[in-house]
Input
Amino acid sequence: MSYTCFAVENVGKIAHVKLTRAVELNTMTPAFWSELPQIVNGISDEGRSRAIVLSSTGKHFTAGMDLSVFTGDSGVASSAGAGDGVEIGRTRANLRLIALHLQDSFNALERARMPVLAAVQGGCIGGGVDMVSACDMRYATADAFFCIQEINIGMTADVGTLQRLPKIVPEGVVRELAYTGRRMSAARAREVGLVNEVYPDQAAMLAGVMEIAEEIAHKSPLAIWGSKEMITYARDHSVADSLNYVATWQTGMFQAGDMMESFAAKTERRAPRFDDLLPSPRKI
Output
């Protein structure tokens, strides 16, 4: 299937999703917000891939929200139903639904049954920070930088950055970025834990990230899914609630088949062979 903003390539058990509007700095047009969840939900629902690598093309990872999201026939104002004679409360209620729709596009990355690894080159600006904050891990080139651009155009970031980023890096760091709109370098991002590793260039980064994704792909996809689910749940709940949840999860998910395959593979000195996840019921 062809997309306006993305290209999707399957490399073994890895789904490689690339932003492809390099000339336009990979800005997020209206099509972006429907294509991204469609792609990620499709990969997750199919269950064949063991990891998703999210990368980009051109000089910058993304320059953030495209102006067309705010203007034109498919823009926010038009979609909200704003116009002469339209009751303001109803327009504002629709604006809220639009914000929730945009948020849900990035929620798909967090909900995916397999890890999502973001590979960032150049600028990761505005909505780009919202997007990579929803990924499991982030990697960057030495020339990469991150910017909560919304404050520089007179608005509060509203698609996930201010909710997820304080769970990734120290709150004071987030506040400084959110209040000043300054650029955070890749080196500083590595220092505070926003990115796991910094590479000299994009080729080295993609090679490194694909190697990590390949390592993940050789583990039990069911155990990986459970690990992702538990880490995300623990981020937003108490230790007691999280322990209770994992006990309940294991009661259904842990059936020992993958563990026995791991032991057998080790004994036989071979790579383990795990079944793919079953297709999601949404596919039935």
User: Anything to note?
Assistant: Residues 81 and 90 are 8 Å apart (CA to CA).
